[in-house]
Amino acid sequence: MNFPAELKYTKDHEWIRVEGDEAVIGITDFAQRELGDIVFVDINTVGEEVAENEVFGTVEAVKTVSDLFMPVKSTVLAVNDAIDSSPELVNTDPYGEGWIIRVKLADAAAVEALLSADQYKAEVNA
């Protein structure tokens, strides 16, 4: 499994990559493997401020639907259009083309409280 060191992680299996006062969020390689084949990603929070640990959308796999949780308080700016027509990108490239949303961070420093790659690896026993 892949756990890029430059990202931060949540215990709910989201990753976040900070880019100035914005960030990109997706689900981890571990999460996509656990879910199996992803068939649909539903995000209905564009333009909304979502509190830390609140649900910002769902990922639907063949066998289950899983909530997506906001790593830190943020406003959802955009959804990755590519995953509308190709949700399998979340499976094949979870840290690249399979990203889920772009957000404006309420407080970029809050990201520092999230898990490092090594801490997340320990969390999932990888």
What does the model show?
The strands form two sheets. Strands 1-2-3-9-8-5 form a six-stranded antiparallel sheet. It has helices spanning 29-35, 82-85, 89-92, 117-123; strands at residues 8-9, 14-19, 22-27, 38-42, 49-50, 55-61, 65-69, 74-79, 101-105. The relative contact order is 0.27. The protein is 17% helix and 35% strand. It starts with 7 loop residues before the first strand and ends with a helix. Residues 22-104 form the Lipoyl-binding domain. The glycine cleavage system catalyzes the degradation of glycine. The H protein shuttles the methylamine group of glycine from the P protein to the T protein. Its cofactor is (R)-lipoate.
